[in-house]
Amino acid sequence: MIKKVLTLIIGVVLVAAVSSVSWAQQRVNVQESDISQRLGFGYRFGNFKDKDTGERPTVDVDQKHSLLMIYGITPYTAIQLEGAFGTDWNFDTEFYSVFADLQLRLPMEEFAGYIFGGAGFQNDRARSLFVVDDSLVWRAGVGAEYFMTEQTALNLEGIYNFDDGDDTYDSWEIRAGLTYYF
After folding, report:
1. H/E element holding 87?
2. CB–CB of 112/144 below 8 Å?
3. What is the pLDDT of residues 50-85, one digit of tens each?
4. Which one, of 154, 147, 180, lies nearest residue 68 by Cα?
5. Is 102:120 a contact under the CB 8 Å cutoff?
6. First to last CA, the chain
7. Collapsing DSSP states into helix, strand and coil, what is residue 105?
């Protein structure tokens, strides 16, 4: 429990520090949150929870960290590549995953809403048992992006993961983060 609280506090402090630096600079009036022909790199921090099917204990991952690369194809579409890792302290398990997603975006003044979906590969390892589970994972999500400057955006996302045909391993996650666009 203490690790969860400390991780949450560190995440909030990091977001607050970056936000205060951005707000302290002269605010740029973003005409449109159009990322077409722009490359962005981002970080997401979230909580991951397995679907409760009653067939096995529910897994609550204390922390999940994701690094993303986003390329805007048009003002309304983008490709997102992601690498992530996380740890479930309850079951002494860690996982690694990679995903490729297509974003459908609705750009507005300083805000963009988006939905996304794609597929990826996930590798789960029980550290104490040396058990490895590899799986194909499909996912769908919804997100919001608020541009503090022309380059820096805050993100909030909700995602549902569909594990390759075995719905006992489906999961959802809520995450927040930052993206910097060049």
Report:
1. strand 77-88
2. yes
3. 655 555 445 555 678 899 999 999 989 999 999 998
4. 180
5. no
6. 38
7. strand
